[in-house]
Amino acid sequence: MAVIKPENVEDFYDIGEDLGRGHFGQVRQVCERATGTVWAAKFLKIRKTACSRLGLDRSSVEREVEVLQALQHPNIVILKDVFESRAEVVLILELVSGGELFDFIAEKENLLESEAIEFMKQILEGLGFMHSKNIAHFDLKPENIMLSDKVSPHPNIKLIDFGLAHHFHQGVEYKSTSGTPQYIAPEVINSEPLSTAADMWSIGVITYILLSGLSPFQGNTDEETLRNVIAMSYEFDSRYFSMTSSMAKDFIEKLLVKDPTDRMTAEECLLHPWIKPITRKQVAKRNRSSINMKNFKKFNARRKWKMSYNMVWMCNRLVRLKLLRGSSDQDMLQRQCESDVEDAESKPASLLRRRLSSSS
Ligand code: ATP
């Protein structure tokens, strides 16, 4: 059972600037009064009643807390404390101040595969640790891969957002259709029993994008994207992959595999020659290959634009709804953003529930 303090976070922390927003939470920088240390506080609104239109089920917040409490790893955001007051649970998290990995990379003029691999290695180490604890993230995408700080030339990867994560228990099947279409594994779409292998599919998609600036299954609509995933319809277009090593393509091919039991695990990825070259020839190949920076920058700019567009759309819609209902608490309005929009739209499937979050 997750430990949640029935106290008001504002009695212990000064609430500072906005750090980001997701579907279900607003994240603010906070300063712990007793020590002066800065943290990130994720505010999650809890549904008041089962039929309430706003907020999250308490059980799903407890799941996120429980998962984070079980994960202490240098590449996974640390949970320090949890508070609950009125209809809100607040997670006090390690402050991750380096921004998103994709934004960091997009600022570079060029990047060798060997440099990109240093980040991939850390992602896989965090993931390998998580999977060794029988926990899957189920929402791996560029927005959830952040960097520890902005000052170090080699910042550490920090995986964030465990809102869809699941702790597997032996003999207990788990199904879910939540996720983001571009990054989602076929077994999620097909409502099949899931395993940690679904995360490995997402790693295949993320690596593909990182190298080429193309999203392998992206269609014109979410429905088309999901159809492309099911059909396994992707290729390495030579116009975008001319600078990519054959080892990198092999790495991706061993992840974008329909049968989850045939996909490489995080541990196996760490031993793949693209990540851990054995021969001098393999080392040389990696050092000669680079990521398609021109197209990657384009992909990232589009992704950021769509994220801002979606957020503005969601907030405008919520403000309109709230004004209609006569609410006046502006801060609360912003925190409630997404969950309200979802209900107003009455989307039936949770797959579509999450789609506005990203660049799909
Ligand atoms: P989603 O819609 O993807 O499910 P969410 O509501 O679960 O999102 P998070 O993804 O956890 O919320 O956080 C929203 C944003 O807040 C992140 O994209 C990131 O920019 C920022 N953020 C989250 N955690 C931290 C942190 N520990 N330090 C700094 N910024 C953070």
From TrEMBL:
Keyword Kinase set for record: yes
Keywords: ATP-binding, Kinase, Nucleotide-binding, Serine/threonine-protein kinase, Transferase
Cross-referenced InterPro entries: Kinase-like_dom_sf, Prot_kinase_dom, Protein_kinase_ATP_BS, Ser/Thr_kinase_AS
Keyword Transferase found: yes
Pfam families registered for this protein in UniProt: Pkinase
Binding site for ATP: 42
Gene Ontology terms, MF aspect: ATP binding; protein serine/threonine kinase activity
GO cellular component: cytoplasm; nucleus
SUPFAM superfamilies: Protein kinase-like (PK-like)
Assigned EC number: 2.7.11.1
Recorded superkingdom: Eukaryota
EC class name: transferase
Residues covered by the Protein kinase domain: 13-275
Family recorded in the similarity comment: Belongs to the protein kinase superfamily.
This protein's name: non-specific serine/threonine protein kinase
Gene designation: si:dkey-240h12.4
